[in-house]
Amino acid sequence: MDPAATLPPLIDSHCHLTWPSFDEDRDEVIARMKDEGVEQAVVISTTVEDARAVRALCEANPGLYPTAGIHPNDLPPALDEGLDEIEALIRSGGFVAVGETGLDYYRDNTEAPDQQRAFRRHCRIAVENDLPVIVHIRDREGSWDAYDDVATIIEEFEGLRGVIHCYTGDPEHARRYLQSDFVISFSGIITFPKGGNVRESALAVPIERMLVETDAPFLAPVPRRGKRNEPAYVVHTARAVAELKELSEADVRRITTRNTRRLFRLPAEETIGPPTYVIRNAVYVNVTNACDAKCTFCPRTHDDFEVKGYDLRRPRDPTFEQIIEGIGDPTGYDEVVFCGFGEPTLRLDMVKKVARWAKERGAATRLNTNGHADLINRRATAAELVGLIDVVSVSLNAQDRETFERHCPSAFSPDGYTPMLDWIRSAVEAGLDVVCTALEGLEGVDMAACEAITLELGARWRGRTLNEVG
């Protein structure tokens, strides 16, 4: 079987397929893209004329989506007239984004004030038409002026969203763009031997805020370095991101595809949240979407049921048969983890049934819980998990009741904290391997105090990163 057919689809979020270097084999390039599982691509324009050509190409090729904009290096002498044409094209419909625009202080063929004026106009068009803006940044050697100016300009526009494409800046600027509701896209530069700075920035960007691109025909990734780039080669960038982030290629494909579709509102098949889902080499059981708690940091609290590229929203909880069918051979994974976007012990009997099935086949098991099992089930529950669950991970998340209730209010407030500690203690006494976790960066949470409480309870400790789900 073709390996690409067994992996999630991938999207090239930025390519220039109208470039003359594709004139002789453009159809073959698009076919190779599809053969590699790159199902969709955003085709970027750099001039008014190019925007028209990009739209025509995309209308003739399903899976390609056009943008309209003027690159900062291609600003026409009659700038306002050119920008008026871009706005008219955008208003005529059919485009998924405004751009490529931005600031390029590396070359001096256009003046910085003109670039800034054009960039602001592109941003205004994007906001008024509820479209993302695609931003190019390039600076003089040793300077951060363009990066600072881009940040300042995008912060001027309320409701602006978009992508900083082909990112080559530092982690600090990346974080600033993320705070402005932008995502960051990485190209083949991440594979270059001299791309260490880009890899450092990629580590600072959560995978949930990351896109991958080729910028074809430029910047072909290793092992295609030195050749003309094309959308099919985005697979190499995705693999490099996977290695860097310690994720699987399937994880990166799935997550960046959802990120790209969300930003550009590209079409996708409607799906029902899966009963099981795979991250790295663990299979997770989406036991239930229901939860007794409404934690301030939990995506489901904000009606976002996504984790690592999976939409876990389900109209009803999965059956035992659906779960074991989703798992398949449990020994093919490092562990079976009971963790959806709800509290698994709301369906404790289902957790035990599936865990027993998995253990009978020699699989390792883990339960992620908020520690409210006794409250939920109105009985002592820890001993019931012995022999079924190998590791229990409990979200401690605070060093005292007051801090806990501020971040993790539940059906058992004003004190869901003390019963959680009691449950952890009982699980340890029952002989379960218990790990307590807390989120680094959660306001008012003392990580050292949380660790001390964990060790006093006889459990193991692990700090987690805020906004890193899965």
How would you describe what is shown here?
The protein is 36% helix and 17% strand. It is of the alpha/beta class. The protein is built from 15 helices and 17 strands. The chain has helices spanning 26-35, 48-60, 79-92, 112-128, 145-154, 171-179, 196-204, 234-245, 249-264, 320-327, 348-360, 373-377, 401-407, 417-429, 447-457; strands spanning 10-15, 38-43, 64-68, 97-104, 133-138, 162-164, 182-186, 210-212, 276-279, 282-285, 306-307, 310-311, 335-338, 365-369, 391-395, 433-440, 460-465. β11 and β12 (310-311) form a beta hairpin. The longest helix is centred in the first third of the chain and has 17 residues, at 112-128. An 8-stranded parallel β-sheet has the order 1-2-3-4-5-6-7-8, with helices on both faces. α4 packs parallel to α5 (145-154). 46% of the residues are buried. The protein folds into 2 domains: 3-264, Metal-dependent hydrolases (TIM Barrel); 276-465, Aldolase class I (TIM Barrel, Alpha-Beta Barrel), CATH 3.20.20.70.
